[in-house]
Amino acid sequence: MYLSTVTSPAATPPAERSGRRRFTKVSANVFALGTVSLITDVSSEMVTAVLPLYLVLGLQLSPLAYGMIDGVYTGATALLRLVGGYVADRTRRRKAVAGLGYGLSAVAKLALLAAGRSVPAIGLVIAADRTGKGLRAAPRDAMITLSTPPESLGRAFGVHRAMDSVGAFLGPLVALGVLALAANSFDAVFVVSFCVAALGVMVLVLFVRDRREAVPATAKVSPREAAALLRDAPVRRLVLAACLLGLATIGDGFVYLLLQRREELSTVWFPLLAAGTSLGYLLLAAPLGVLADRIGRLPVMLGGYVALTAAYLLLFGPLGGSPLLVVTLGLYGLFYAATDGILMALAGPVLPDRLRTTGIALIQTGQALAYLVSSVLFGLAWQTWGPATASRVAALAVVVAVAATLLLLRTPRGAARGGGPADSRPLPEPDDPTDPPQAATSTDRTNENAEVER
Fold first, then answer.
1. ∠ CA(402), CA(334), CA(256), 5° rounding?
2. What pLDDT shows up at residue 335?
3. Which side of the chain, N or C, has fewer Cβ within a 10 Å radius?
4. What's the pLDDT tens digit per position in 376-388?
5. What DSSP designation does 184 have?
6. Handedness of CA 134, 44, 165, 167 (dihedral sign)
7. Is the pTM value of this prediction over 0.70?
8. What is the three-state SS of 146-183?
9. Collapsing DSSP states into helix, strand and coil, what is residue 85?
10. Chain centroid to CA 359: how far?
11. Other CB atoms closer than 10 Å to residue 69's CB: what's the count?
12. Can you tell me the distance from the alpha carbon of 449 to that of 392, in angstroms, rounded to the nearest whole number?
């Protein structure tokens, strides 16, 4: 339905469409940031892959208690994304803020050793780890947008997320190897995870450049100016859509626990479920990023949520055995590949340069807070109605969220290149969303923001 309302991107010369030149628009800085994310995700996924098993089977936590911890893992420190984004914009030191976040997450891996089997202590350490992620996410994504032409944002985020997913794929495998060599010692996993995370911080310091936007900052960003972002219709609609989609998404750990229980998988193989998802993400992230730049980012993103709906329904559907595992994890990887970076690519063209990091953080914060609520609600639904009913209700919630997002972000007059949301204000003819070159300039975005403030 949406595709009929979207205009196709302007035709490009055959040389630019060739596979050889397709990724030449991705800058070295994006590859450097991708390398940092790859290494850091090896560290993070080593812990993430074994944590659900450790908490639910090892510490015997109820689904509701696990849901609360899982919500903390992603959402409890979401407001710090806003802090990180605002500080990065105010100081124009995005690399320094991102480095602080990466460093804090690395230290948190060692703190898991001290937490032992104490659930409150584990919760605090997880909160510290997510604090680091909250601080680094928006500055990192802002550096990607500042290193990339607007018409290639989908490609750049796709390449970055593909590199990120390489780390997510390798992390569970490394954890499995460490557990095998260290006689199932979780402490060994935590120590190795810290060493890998420290390597990622070193790569960030040595190789990532903090590109400054072409428009000079004549004054420091004020809290009032940052708060005014929500008065901008495209930004407001993106934030609301991110919240709706986050509210309909349950945690990865829940999906893997349901698969493990249904198929009675050995605990030894549990980390490989996350590796299967990451493999799908790895293979599809970059191609879907390129596709999003060509046909529109919104249809690609919503297609990812359709795949998520199918994965939730399959958890208690007709398939079983190996076909169930392969199809469900493949759909789950497709979901991440089609949504994770694409949402940030949607946000890039509508955010002013001076407030780019704050705007990205605002969208990420809304989604993370919604995810916190979703994890707690799903844990409660599992405990009350059982896992089968809870997973079907989750699938229905995704369908509702997709429909609402389509109504919020669709552009009746035709989408800009990349399918970004259209502003409700009338724009001069050269700035019409159907003219990608003019709509993509940073000057136009800055002038648009000034109009909102007036």
1. 95
2. 93
3. C
4. 899 889 889 998 9
5. S
6. positive
7. no
8. HCCCHHHHHHHHHHHHHHHHHHHHHHHHHHHHHHHHCC
9. helix
10. 15
11. 25
12. 42
